[in-house]
Design brief:
The complex is a heterodimer of chains A (about 120) and B (about 400). Chain A contains six helices and two strands; from the N terminus they run H-E-E-H-H-H-H-H. By secondary structure, chain A is mainly alpha-helical. Chain B is globular. Chain B has helices at about 25-35, 45-65, 80-90, 105-115, 135-140, 165-175, 190-195, 255-275, 275-295, 325-335, 345-355, 370-385, and strands at about 10, 70-75, 95-100, 120-125, 145-150, 175-180, 200-205, 215-220, 300, 315-320, 335-340, 340, 360-365.
Amino acid sequence: MERTAPTAAVRQELGERVRLIAGREITFDGEGFFWDPHQWSEEAAAALAEEAGLKDVGEAHWTILQFLREYYFQNGRSPLNRQIKEGTGISLMEMEALFPGGIKYGARRLAGLPNPRNCI
Amino acid sequence: MASSRKTIYLDNAATTFPKPPGVLEEMIEVYSNLGVSPGRGSYDLSMEAEERVMDIRRQVCQFFGGSDPERVIFSYNATDALNTLIQGLIRPDFRVVSSRLEHNSVLRPLHYFSQQGIIRLDLIPFGSEGFIDPMAVSEAIRPDTSFVILTHASNVLGTVQPVERIGEICRERGVPLLLDVTQTAGRLPIRMEEWGVSAVAFTGHKSLLGPTGIGGLVLSPRLDVEATRFGGTGRDSLSLDHTRVYPQRLEAGTINVAGIFGLSAGLRCTSSRGMENIYSKEIGLARRLHHGLNSIKGVRVYPAILNDAPWVPIMLCNMEGMDPEDLASILDGDFGIAARAGLHCAPLVHEDLGTSPKGGVRFSLGPFNTDEDIDQVLEAMDTISGSK
C-alpha cells in the first residue's frame, strides 16, 4: 500500500516545484525528493546523480537504489535501517560514503521515494 | 513485529525504555481490579478507585514538594499539562517571560498567543554553556509580566537551570514561576514550594518510569488556573457551569486510570531504587560518554564543557561532514544504537548553538544503560569517524 497523496496545502507548505529532468517533467518537494515515485526512471536518477556530483553510478549504487524501490513498492514504506543493510549486503556507513549527500539526501532521494519526514 | 536484535537504547529523553520489571505488571493488576470510573458512582468499587487515585495524588504531591494533593491535576503528558496551564492563565495584554531553551510544548502555545496579539512574549537567551542567567530573568520581568515559565533542564543539552535562584527572584517580584520538569522529574529532587515555584508540569513516561499517556500538574495554592476544557466531572451535574473545584476544574472527562496506576508504580520504583543511586549511575556513564566523544576526531559535543555544573545525562553531538540523520541511521543500522537525530522539538536551542536546521544526534541515558553500552557507542563513533 502506498501512502496517501499529500493535500494541495501540504504540497505548497513543503515547497513543491516542477523540474525538467532527463526530458521529463518531475515534481519535487522543497528538499528535492520526488512527490510521485512513479515519475522516477533510471535516466532521471543518473541525471540527478550527476547533478549531485556522482558521475558514474556504479553497481553498488544501483543495487541500493533498486532495493529501496522494490522494498517500497512491496511494503508501502521505505525499509528500516537494518533492512537496508540485510537486503543489500552493504553497510549504512558504506552507503553514506557512496552517495554525495549521504543516505537520506543521496541514496533515498535518488531512489525517487517520498521524503522520509521524521519528526525532527 | 518488534526487532529481536539487542538495541543499545539512548533515547531516554524521549521516553525511558524498557520500563523496570514490575511497573507495567502492577499497573495491569491494579487496573484489572479497580479499573472503573473513579468517584463517579456511589458503588463501592468506584469509591475505592477514587480513594486509590487520591492516594496517588498525595504520592505525586509529596514527590514534587507540593502542599495540596487536590491541586494535583492529571493530564495525558507534559505538553497537555503545559497547555492546560498556559491557556488557563493567559489573559489579553499579558506579558510572559520564557527562554530560548524551551521545548515546543512551551514555545508553541506562547508563540500562538503572541502571534494572535494576545500576549507579549519575552524570551531570554542562554549562555554558551547552556544556562539561563537568573539576572536576565530579573531584568526581563516588568510590571505587567504575569508569569515566568521555564524548563528545569534542557532536553537538548541536559543543563539544569538555577531554578532556586530564579524562584527567589520571582517570589521577590511577586510573579509566579512555572516549571517544566519533564527532563528532571525522577532524576533530581524537586521541591516546588521550597523553591517558590507556583506550578510544575511533568510527564510520567520518562524518568518517572511509568507508561505513556499520563502526566500532570502540581499547583501551588497561590496560583489559580481557569478551565479551558469543559465537561463531565462527577460533581455538580445539575449545573451547566463547569466546576471550579480542584482537581476536577482542570480534569474534564474520565481520567486515565490505568496510566495513573502505572505512574504510581513508576514513582514507587524510582523511590525504591533510590533517585540518587539512579542519577549517580546515569551521570557517571554520561560523563564518560561525553569525555570519550570529545576525544574523537571530527566530533563536536554540546555542551562542550561540563565542569561541575548541574546536568542530566543528555548531550548533543555532530560529526564533521555528516548529516545527523545519516549518523543516527548508521548508528542504528550498523551498530544497533538508537539515538535521536534532528531538532528535538527545541528549534531555538539549535538556532543559538548554530546546529539549525539539521540539528544533531542526541544521546540520552537511562536507568538500564551500562558501561558496555558506552564502550560500544564510543567504538562505533570512532569507527564512523575513521571512515570519513
